[in-house]
Amino acid sequence: MTGFSLVFWHWWTLGALLLILELLLPGMYFLWMAEAALLTGAVLWLLPGLGWEIQLLVFSVLSLASIFVFEKFIGRKPIVSDRPLLNRRAAQYIGRTLMLEQPIVNGMGKIRIDDSIWRVHGDDCPAGTKIRVCDVDGVILKVERVA
Fold first, then answer.
1. With the CA atoms of 28, 36, 61 and 9 taken in that order, what torsion angle do they form, in degrees rounded to the nearest 10?
2. Residue 51: CB partners within 8 Å, gap ≥ 6?
3. 94 vs 118: CA distance, rounded Å
4. What pLDDT does 85 receive?
5. Residues with Cβ < 8 Å from 99, sequence gap 6 or more?
6. NfeD-like C-terminal domain: from which residue to which, for each copy (predicted)?
7. For residue 1, what pLDDT is reported?
8. Do the Cβ atoms of 16 and 28 come closer than 8 Å?
């Protein structure tokens, strides 16, 4: 009985399958493993006599190296924006001074800002008091009385 031997196109096929898997699943790890499989196929194409043990070692080392390089140099960069509060509507209100239409009772109340009604948390205040939004906790605006 003859043993099964891996040839370069096996690795290229694995690389193509991993690329397809990357398209279907998030995370970008399959992309780097696909790169390692394609490179392993290229190494085997150049050096066709490598045993399967060496091939798996080359694939493993290339996979780990490419994932490490991705994590170290590409994966951890924060997204820089000229409008960091664009989709954080409540955070856009921090620092804004408003007039209470309804009183804050037992630390909780509601206020109309633009076209929305927001829940507010702060010291008890009667209606007509000027307040400033000082922080946001989820969808609750934390307010303080303006002197």
1. 140
2. none
3. 13
4. 67
5. 128, 129, 130, 131
6. 91-145
7. 45
8. no
pTM over 0.85: no
Sign of the torsion formed by the C-alpha atoms of 17, 1, 51 and 60: positive
- Alpha carbons 8 and 117: distance in angstroms, whole number: 63
CA distances, 22 to each of 8, 61, 63, 105, 115 (Å) = 21, 20, 14, 53, 42
Mean pLDDT by 10 residues, the chain (147 residues): 78 95 87 94 92 93 90 75 76 90 93 91 93 93 92
Both tokens of 30, joined, read 């399959």
CA distance 94 to 86: 13
Q: Are 103 and 123 in contact (CB under 8 A)?
A: no
Domains of the chain: 8-74 (no CATH), 90-145 (2.40.50.140)
Residue bearing tokens 């694995």 = 14
